[in-house]
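debug: dumping io for the single-chain case to check the tokenizer round-trip. Nothing else runs in this session.
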Amino acid sequence: MKQLLLSFLLFFMTNTLAFAEEDVDPFEDINRVIYDFNETIDDNLLEPTSRAYKENTPDLIQRGISNFLVICVMCPHWLTKYYNSNPLKV
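debug: decoded output
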């Protein structure tokens, strides 16, 4: 019995080690294409746009836009808090 258990343990350990050595990603080709696309968009569109915005927009306007975006992001949170704490809610 002990020998049978040991053989099963050894069998499963060797199989898991064999699978662990294979580092196969079935989506590797798609991931590489998506990564290259994202890099191209970032290098040619987003990075120059953000650099031009940062260099040419005054700090006061940048802060105003930043504050507006924070309010837009926080609005659903505030509405949820309001509706969850409303004592007249049925």
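debug: round-trip ok. The helical segments are 2-21, 28-56, 59-85.
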